[in-house]
Amino acid sequence: MILIPRSLGFWNTISRRVFKAEYTRPGDESIRKNIISTLNEEETAAYIHIPYCTGTCWFCPYARHPVSKNNIDEIIGKYVKYLKKEIRTYGELLRDKNLRIMDIHAGGGTPSLVPAKYWREIIEEITSSFDAKPSIAIEANPEDLKDEETAYGLVDAGINEFSLGFQSFHPELLSRLGRRHSVEDSIKAYDNLRNAGAKYINIDLMYMIPGQSLQQWIEDLEKAAGLGPDEITAYPTLVLENSIGYKMIREGRLPEQPGMNVFKQMMYAAEDLLPRRNYIGLEIYGYSRHPDWKYVTVNYEMEGPLLGFGAGAMGFTGAYEYQNTCYPEAYGDLLSRNKLPIAFARSVSLEERAIRYTTCRLFICRSLDKKKFEYKFNQSFEKLIGKTGFKWFLKTLKLTGDIREEDDKILLTRKGLLTAHKITWAFVMNVPCRMVEECLKEPLPERVVIP
């Protein structure tokens, strides 16, 4: 089996129908008006994309561009200049709304490649542009943080949450992912961050790696829990047909992925093992030692509001979704001409947002609170979702025992966990991954239809 969209069968079909959308390239004035008129909440999150890597991981589906460490300071310095201008532009655009950025997540690419001095500049720009000092979290490559000075520098710069891409404790599995760090690098990076005073550390693990056994996965979970991180996230290895890894599997240069039955066993292994090590399942892929903290990733893309900064970033105000150009050159050129670097965008209906919110809360975060839904949308859950065909989908899942109702909540059951994973990864592969795939074809496409 290869874990591609069509391997998820029925759930892939549902995802393609529910989240089918058309994006176009609007004029700059239209973009600004739409962002101002649709961003109506007092608090928002922000995502920063760092599109540079010193190598390519074989299954990476995101916007990234190769860079040599020899000239990384020069390239990052130029990029940060434009990134700060974009942040400042949004601050000025939204000044009358008194908007507060509460959480920032930086992904890539490789955010840990950015020297501490530039992270200080980025954080200072956000603080001054939005009159707030938010929590800053970055995805980090163990190869970068095995150096003690780098780890201390990033923490001192103001980054307080890290997601370390361990992926596996088995060297042969790291090799099959195209990772360049060693197991020793991962442990050293973790120790450096702990000693530097990082507030929260997440360890990121991957399963469904080509040729991976169930026993290897259980060993990875045990070893990660033994280190005692604040959270452990467990993601399946998604195989996009435009990835290097897909071609390598097809050509027999990598083993096949485990089958769907092993996928189910691996998923439940995390669900059963980690709670016994005092980790709480706050998301279907995230297990935290803290009931009130998790390393947030997919949630804001689904629910909004989210401001996207950087080449390759996606933003979602709640009623307006946009994708920045994935090309750093085009990104800098647009900002140098005082234009927002958005490649394409679309309006999102209230009904679609309600479905996205429900999907995120129920199938990623494990439960939907109807009272919170009503507060957010100013309509009852039954009334708003009742206007859509999604209500029949939920009724079916209730009959099959995948979800259940309790007071004012709808809860995901243990049986429904497999269904939730299929729904989530079908969405990820068909929507954000497809958006990036289209955006990488050319800097500013006129029209994009996904899936």
Low-confidence stretches: none
Compute the number of strand runs: 19
Largest sheet, described in full? 9 strands, mixed
Per DSSP, the total helix count is 19
Strand order of the largest sheet: 10-11-9-8-7-6-5-2-12
**Terminal CA distance:** 22 Å
Oligomeric description of these chains: single chain
Strand fraction equals 15-25%
3D structure, described in words:
There is one protein chain. By secondary structure, the protein is an alpha/beta fold. Helices cover 45% and strands 20% of the residues. The chain is built from 19 helices and 19 strands. The chain has helices spanning 10-18, 28-38, 72-93, 116-130, 142-145, 148-157, 171-176, 183-196, 214-227, 244-250, 260-273, 298-303, 328-336, 350-363, 370-377, 381-386, 390-399, 416-430, 432-439; strands spanning 21-24, 43-50, 52-53, 65-66, 100-108, 135-140, 161-167, 200-207, 231-236, 280-281, 286-288, 306-309, 314-316, 320-324, 342-347, 367-369, 403-406, 409-412, 447-450. It has a nine-stranded mixed sheet with strand order 10-11-9-8-7-6-5-2-12. A three-stranded antiparallel sheet has the order 13-14-15, sandwiched between helices. It is globular and about 55 Å long. The two termini are 22 Å apart. The model has no long low-confidence stretch (mean pLDDT 94).
